[in-house]
Design brief:
The chain contains 12 helices and 20 strands. It is of the alpha/beta class. It starts with a strand and ends with a strand. The structure holds inosinic acid.
């Protein structure tokens, strides 16, 4: 704080939801700046489990302002569904604690349809998207044919813009993909009606965030997905369509980059990935299955089984470097309890050559082999541990190795899904 970036330093699902909820205690404002409802940020409070897709994970902390910035792709249906879901569970959500950027781009039903149809078209080359319309909406943003939240607020303007946009998309759905087009007028009326429901939340959030900063408020920027899914830095084309690390904040929240004075990367003690694409330390064997079972590694947005593997220090070093991270938070350390040996990729090998750095120059990194460092495991249940010194020696050694090899200080270690299952190493 005052302006902290917390982002995923792997391929997503690092446990950001729990950590943002926890860190939000010491913040005034929590800001999402990219992605959309493809995210699934899980927060457990007592016996209650909340999965947030679009709304920032600070929403469960009373008195905090939660902002969906201009860089987020917003599906109005998902937004209102999430607001209603929180209301139904007694969480107060209104235009004071939840702000929505008028400049954020809208995800329409045609984006979701085209997301699925494009994946079908790609066949074996599919990306494995979440099907939430993310890519098609960001594509329209870049093509300058998208509509923004502000466009939904003026019914006449919305009708004109959406009719024009949808006419083209319907041609694509019908003539390229051979599917039934959407009912143009029904869609237009539906989104005009949704616009009216969004209105109480909408504002110039860029200005609101900048004013909060200038007034000395503490701001937490919540990354979604992970650095290795970043559209520029990640394993393109197997990526999402936004800048997921600290590098996305300035454009996605409209704040000066030099305001971000603290950058924290979140990593699991091992590694997972959903969807297609390279994953050098993946385990397609019984150990991978065991990690999936012990870690309950199934997607919180799509329910898909996650691909599991050992920690990959090459990818994490790269992710931390791009965002300038000075601290690491390690999650799910408890999931590794019971393994006799824990491995972690410290380098890659390609054609007999050892590489310590992420091989961005390779068109595909499918061919690299991980070089594993081997660590002694521990058998103790560590879910009740709250002090670093109370961890088994082997777990402390593993964390010390992570710090050395990733060249970043471990600030916290999460040992279970609950808010209090955390070891604060800064004390
Ligand atoms: P999209 O973001 O739905 O377009 O999906 C592109 C890729 O990013 C796919 O491999 C997805 O599985 C992955 N992805 C998107 N959102 C998340 C997330 O929140 N966690 C993990 N993977 C994600």
């Amino acid at each position: 704080m005052p302006a902290t970036s917390v982002f995923g330093a792997q391929w997503g699902d690092e446990g950001k939801g729990k950590l943002i909820d926890l860190l939000a205690k010491d913040a005034d404002m929590v800001v999402r700046y990219q992605g959309g409802a493809n995210a699934g940020h899980t927060v457990v409070v007592g016996t209650q489990k909340y999965v947030l897709h679009l709304i920032p994970s600070g929403i469960l902390n009373p008195g905090k302002v939660n902002v969906i910035g201009n860089g987020v792709a917003v599906d109005p249906l998902k937004f209102l569904e999430e607001v209603d879901g929180l209301h139904a569970r007694g969480i107060a959500v209104d235009g004071r604690n939840l702000r929505l950027s008028s400049q954020a781009h809208v995800i329409f039903e045609h984006h979701r349809r085209i997301d699925g149809l494009s994946e079908r078209w790609r066949g074996d080359g599919r990306i494995g998207t979440t099907g939430r319309g993310i890519g098609p909406s960001y594509a329209d943003k870049a093509a300058r044919t998208g509509l923004r939240i502000v466009d939904l607020l003026d019914p006449d303007h919305c009708r004109v813009r959406l009719r024009a946009a949808l006419a083209e998309k319907n041609a694509l759905i019908e003539r390229v993909h051979g599917e039934t087009p959407l009912d143009l007028e029904a869609q237009v009326e539906r989104y005009v009606a949704l616009g009216a429901k969004l209105a109480p939340f909408v504002g110039d959030t860029g200005r609101e965030v900048r004013e909060a900063y200038k007034a000395g408020k503490r701001i937490l920027f919540e990354g979604a997905q992970g650095a290795m899914l970043d559209i520029d830095a990640g394993t393109y084309p197997y990526v999402t369509s936004s800048n997921t690390g600290a590098n996305g904040i300035s454009a996605g929240a409209l704040v000066p980059p030099r305001w971000i004075n603290h950058v924290v990367g979140i990593v699991k003690a091992y590694c997972t990935r959903v969807g297609e694409g390279p994953f050098p330390s993946e385990l397609k064997d019984a150990i991978g299955d065991r990690i999936r079972k012990q870690g309950n590694e199934y997607g919180s947005t799509t329910g898909r089984p996650r691909r599991c593997g050992w920690f990959d220090a090459v990818a994490v070093r790269y992710a931390l470097e791009i965002s300038g991270a000075d601290e690491l938070i390690v999650t799910n350390l408890d999931v590794l309890s019971g393994f006799d040996e824990i491995c972690a990729a410290e380098a890659y090998e390609l054609n007999g050559r050892r590489m310590l750095d992420w091989p961005a120059e390779l068109a595909s990194i499918e061919g690299v082999r991980p070089v594993f460092a081997r660590h002694k495991g521990w058998s103790e249940d560590i879910t009740a541990v709250r002090r670093f010194d109370d961890l088994p020696q082997a777990a402390r050694d593993y964390i010390a190795w992570l710090e050395r090899t990733c060249r970043a200080k471990v600030a916290m270690i999460s040992v279970g899904p609950e808010r209090d299952q955390i070891i604060d190493c800064r004390r």
